[in-house]
Amino acid sequence: MLEVRGLDARYGDAQALWDVALDVGAAETVCIVGPNGAGKTTLVQTIAGLHRAAAGTITVEGVDVAALPGHRVCDHGVATVPEGRRVFGHMSVRDNLLLGAYRRPARAVHRETEARVYELFPRLKERATQQAGSLSGGEQQMLALGRALMALPRLLLLDEPSLGLAPVIVDEVFDAIAAVNATGVSVLLVEQDVERALSAASRGYLLIEGRIVASGTTTELRESADVRERVLGM
Ligand code: ATP
């Protein structure tokens, strides 16, 4: 589904990603864990075409999208749920969802997709006409997920979905991610909550100072000395 090789990213003279390589298989959930400032958001944004890669390839279903802008990457089946959710608070829940379906193939079937999003998140249906800004943090996270699903993605990039949410709400959000994954959508999950990320994924990568320093199944990562010392604080 996704194959990243030799990926570098920069902010001016400062290099944020160094020679990153990773894979996400079809219908797989893969996590990226790492401390603050490791480059996790930069990695998501670079894959999504929102930050330009300085070097390397980002191949989605066999097509290198590294030089494409975000809306074109979206056309290859990649949708992003950004850090902090970024829902449009003054617009209704429904209008926020419809924004996710603005590209052509998704637009043609937006009614059917909207109905499926409401099946997955009944609370969004109840609140469809409410302003998104009046939703709780957890509901806004569901809305951000729903908006991404409106684009009919085959790969979902999730940046810190647990950020700022109470643990019981995080459980709900992760249940929703699992439900989305069960429909066959591949998930790349970036999380500071390492335990949650390792529980949700089947494989993962440890990113430190812009480099992948460990990778493996989540069982292997839990046992890795780097993960235990550098992100689990053991
Ligand atoms: P956090 O979990 O705190 O969001 P992160 O792992 O997502 O961290 P990034 O936000 O990707 O890390 O940041 C990686 C590095 O790039 C950091 O050193 C950061 O200071 C730098 N950086 C991020 N955004 C910018 C920017 N717009 N301009 C300059 N440097 C940036």
From TrEMBL:
<dbReference type="GO" id="GO:0015658">
    <property type="term" value="F:branched-chain amino acid transmembrane transporter activity"/>
</dbReference>
<dbReference type="Pfam" id="PF00005">
    <property type="entry name" value="ABC_tran"/>
</dbReference>
<dbReference type="GO" id="GO:0015807">
    <property type="term" value="P:L-amino acid transport"/>
</dbReference>
<dbReference type="InterPro" id="IPR017871">
    <property type="entry name" value="ABC_transporter-like_CS"/>
</dbReference>
<dbReference type="GO" id="GO:0016887">
    <property type="term" value="F:ATP hydrolysis activity"/>
</dbReference>
<keyword id="KW-0067">ATP-binding</keyword>
<keyword id="KW-0813">Transport</keyword>
<feature type="domain" description="ABC transporter">
    <location>
        <begin position="2"/>
        <end position="234"/>
    </location>
</feature>
<protein>
    <submittedName>
        <fullName>Amino acid/amide ABC transporter ATP-binding protein 2, HAAT family</fullName>
    </submittedName>
</protein>
<comment type="similarity">
    <text>Belongs to the ABC transporter superfamily.</text>
</comment>
<dbReference type="GO" id="GO:0005524">
    <property type="term" value="F:ATP binding"/>
</dbReference>
<dbReference type="InterPro" id="IPR003439">
    <property type="entry name" value="ABC_transporter-like_ATP-bd"/>
</dbReference>
<keyword id="KW-0029">Amino-acid transport</keyword>
<dbReference type="InterPro" id="IPR027417">
    <property type="entry name" value="P-loop_NTPase"/>
</dbReference>
<dbReference type="InterPro" id="IPR052156">
    <property type="entry name" value="BCAA_Transport_ATP-bd_LivF"/>
</dbReference>
<dbReference type="InterPro" id="IPR003593">
    <property type="entry name" value="AAA+_ATPase"/>
</dbReference>
<keyword id="KW-0547">Nucleotide-binding</keyword>
